[in-house]
Recover the amino acids of this structure.
């Protein structure tokens, strides 16, 4: 059976809506069973991170623009959400931000001092771990 695309989606039938409600109730029951069988045993800490490919499908100057836009967005999120934390692993990104937007770089320094932005890893550029040699992998850390 083939359907033609439409800008007006068809309404769900009452039976379809009832089946979604039933599935949702069953799911809630299943989750309640899991919670009873496996009670909380600690905390999960989650941190934001942005993986930015340095030279993937765009030229390097576009990468620099993406880095600055991403870091600016993160800066806004940090201002709006006091519990938000962020980490970034590519040290060259900080050099680009310092050059392109010194005020943003100072904001990042403040977030780092507050413990809400963590520069981690130590690589120049976050790389794949399928490097051609151990030397190439180590140079990432030496330069980073």
């Amino acid at each position: 059976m083939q359907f033609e695309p439409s800008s007006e989606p068809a309404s769900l039938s009452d039976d379809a809506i009832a089946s979604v409600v039933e599935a949702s109730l069953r799911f809630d029951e299943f989750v309640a069973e899991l919670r009873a069988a496996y009670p909380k045993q600690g905390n999960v800490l989650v941190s934001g991170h942005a993986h930015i490919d340095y030279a993937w499908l765009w030229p390097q100057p576009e990468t620099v623009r993406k880095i600055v836009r991403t870091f600016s967005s993160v800066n806004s999120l940090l201002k709006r959400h006091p519990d938000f934390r962020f980490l970034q692993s590519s040290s060259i990104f900080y050099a680009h931000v310092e050059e392109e937007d010194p005020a943003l770089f100072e904001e990042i320094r403040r977030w780092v001092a507050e413990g809400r932005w963590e520069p981690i890893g130590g690589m120049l550029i976050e790389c794949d771990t399928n490097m051609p040699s151990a030397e190439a992998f180590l140079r990432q850390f030496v330069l980073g």
